[in-house]
Amino acid sequence: MIDFRSKSLLRKFSIIFVGVALIPFIILFFLHSLYDESHRFIQILDAHFSLIITIIGVISIIGFFGMRMMVKKIILLTKTVKDAVIDKKTILELTEEEGEIGELAKSFFYALKSADEREQKPKETKKIIYDVLKKASEVLAVVNNYDNLIRLVLKTITDAIGAKQGALFSVLETTTDALGAKQGTLFSADDNRYTLKAWVGNHDVTSEQVIETAQSYLDQVAKQNRPFLVTAKEQSEQSDKLLIPPLVFSPLVYNEKLLGVLCFCGNSYWNKFSNEHIIVVLNLSHQLAVSFENAKINKDSDQTYFETLAALALAVEARDPYSRGHSSRVGKTAQEIGELMGMPAEDIKTLRDASMLHDIGKIAIVHDIFMKQGMISEEEKYVIRNHPVIGESIVLHLQKYKHLLDPIRHHHERLDGSGYPDGLKKDEISRITSILTIADLFDTIIQNRSYRSGMNLKDAMKELDNLVIAGKIDKDVVDSLHQIY
């Protein structure tokens, strides 16, 4: 009996073909057997004739339906694939078939699945890129307006520390983001009078309400001229509605003169501000004080914007616990290398200033990418690799700081052309940029990250030596770094 459940489509076809092809031979053999010894034809009996017809009919029918079944499956699979709306359910059912039909259906099924994933991926990529462009556009729209830039700094710090509300919240948004504060405020002092420069949090309040609620705290800051905390347990009548503890107040002091107060209110994550949060707030307060002084005397608008951008860079850095203090450490290392290599004072200052702003373009990158565990996707890598370009765009309008554009844009380039964003090679990369590149790389590999632990000093220097051997970074700069560490 013919087994139509054979695993191979070719085997099925072979069996049916052989079965059908044998019919003429069987008939010829049967007729040959009807001759007698004298080669005379023996009359065929009716029974024999009926048997022949029956055999021919049965085999023909079996062959017809067998071939029809196989062709029907192939047509069904082809039609399904061609259909404008692909019926995945039908293809999935065909994958259960044995032999070539099943294998072919499986191939189509996995191809369709892969196509769906490829179709979804561009959508996700477009969203990531759109978010970056949107954020970058927002930043570039405010960098030419001092008040808006201050507000951006406060907002960034506020989000960074998780605060609910606060004053001088432009800087606070970045700082608050990193620390977890719920509010953030910045007050500027002028003849013992306070004006609300920036506010992040509840929008249904007036400047007068915020100042009135915070007045006693502001007086205390002015009197003591030092930061202080109000814990969540220290509730008071004026704080139960607007400025919700925990609170942190930090004075903006320049040359022993009080220029303002930075305030963060509440904490969404820990119900308190940690010592690390306080350090971030103090550093930001110092940087804002420099910016305030420049803005107040109006002696140099570019300098004022630079100091404010430096505050923004600190706020951006504060979003990622693993990168806090990175720019400061990079600046220190870059300066030491430059001095050791005998660079002029002007270039040393360029190294310090470029280090301060080299990662400011990361403000446009979604915070989740920084905190992601494990390897990042190609799309996320593309976004991260655009932060030097965004950073250059932010600093571009500062006429007196045009010399910072090259190191900011190219601090991820490599001598062999494998870096980004422009793939520069060898002499196309300036010495100042090479120093910033290696100082940045050195600090990155010795510090912990969300996805790995930092290297010890010995392994870090060996890693840099390997990059020198591979022709990626400047040997002279690495040799100078060896003298420091």
Structure description:
By secondary structure, the chain is α+β, with helices and mostly antiparallel strands. The protein has three domains: 9-112, no CATH class; 146-281, Beta-Lactamase, CATH 3.30.450.40; 320-485, Hypothetical protein af1432, CATH 1.10.3210. Helices cover 60% and strands 9% of the residues. The protein contains 18 helices and six strands. The chain has helices at 9-32, 46-82, 88-94, 99-142, 146-160, 169-179, 207-224, 275-297, 301-318, 326-340, 345-357, 367-370, 378-384, 387-395, 405-410, 431-446, 457-469, 475-484, and strands spanning 165-167, 181-190, 193-200, 228-230, 247-254, 257-267. Strands 1, 2, 3, 4, 5 and 6 form a six-stranded antiparallel β-sheet that branches. Strand 5 (247-254) and strand 6 form a beta hairpin. The longest helix is centred in the first third of the chain and has 44 residues, at 99-142. The termini are far apart.
**SS content category:** alpha+beta
Shape: elongated
CATH homologous group name of the largest domain? Hypothetical protein af1432
Question: Mind telling me which CATH architecture of the largest domain this is?
Answer: Orthogonal Bundle
SSE topology string: HHHHHEHEEHEEEHHHHHHHHHHH
Quick structural gist:
The chain is built from 18 helices and 6 strands.
